């Protein structure tokens, strides 16, 4: 990028997008933002960003456009739909989608962007709301090396970026990440349900497991919250269920059996059927609690 910091357009100001934009503002970037929820946009405007009227309007006034949206259809609409990014964007503008979507959709949008003369990266993230707030996200990038090098200074306030391969590779690695997180959440849930029903304080279980080989990011970021019955969403069950659908589709496409992912998919599906889709994804433990007729809660 030039010595003068580029103007960034940021579209999608949800649980992840809001803290990500705040970190970019703190780093001195000028931001133009847009979200279909006016209140979410107003919060970031109050923090110093400029409001856009649409995705196309934001794209027309930005040197770099970043999107952070819930699912593949949302990304397709934001880029390819009426008043979408590609209607307003200027040739040469760098486009970066940081949503978690199907690799095939990432490639489709990147091809359409290339036809407009715009390089594009898929750059999904891991680290949840805590990582977004702290600027410590793991950013998995698919695209060409030159565009990645240009974007590294912009990624830096949000987290650590790694170029994983060509277009779509970032989304493939994110699918791998979501396999490990989902399966680990299920394993943690089983451990806490078993220990708690056997009479052990689950807070003690979290403390002990955090010091041995079982220690992991899931336990560190979600263990204490589970024992306190805090399922306020950092990453919603419905979104992880969406990711597990993407994972299963990828398994079929590449001919890879994913039995543990299939089990996690069913448990997350059960949570969805029970009306718990808006809970944090650690709330999958409630399905196992139902089956065991118990509740995991630290002892007072």
The percentage helix is 40-55%
Uncertain spans: none
Distance between the termini: 54 Å
CATH topology of the largest domain: Rossmann fold
Task: Give the topology string: H per helix, E per strand.
Answer: EHEHEHEHHEHEEHEHEHHHHHH
* Count, helices: 14
Instruction: Describe the strand arrangement of the main beta sheet, using strand numbers.
Output: 3-2-1-4-5-6
Mean pLDDT: 96
The CATH homologous superfamily name of the largest domain equals NAD(P)-binding Rossmann-like Domain
Q: How would a crystallographer describe the biggest sheet?
A: 6 strands, parallel
* Tally of individual domains: 2
Oligomer designation: single chain
Overall body shape: globular
Beta-strand proportion: 5-15%
The chain-level structural class is alpha/beta
Number of strands: 9
Rg on CA atoms, Å? 20 Å
Summarize the structure in short.
The protein folds into 2 domains: 159 residues, Rossmann fold (3-Layer(aba) Sandwich), CATH 3.40.50; 121 residues, N-(1-d-carboxylethyl)-l-norvaline Dehydrogenase, domain 2, CATH 1.10.1040.10.
Q: What would you note in describing this structure?
A:
Helix 1 links the parallel strand 1 and strand 2. The chain has 14 helices and nine strands. The strands form two sheets. The protein has a six-stranded parallel β-sheet, sandwiched between helices. It folds into two domains: 159 residues, Rossmann fold (3-Layer(aba) Sandwich); 121 residues, N-(1-d-carboxylethyl)-l-norvaline Dehydrogenase, domain 2 (Orthogonal Bundle). It has 300 residues and is an alpha/beta fold. It is globular.
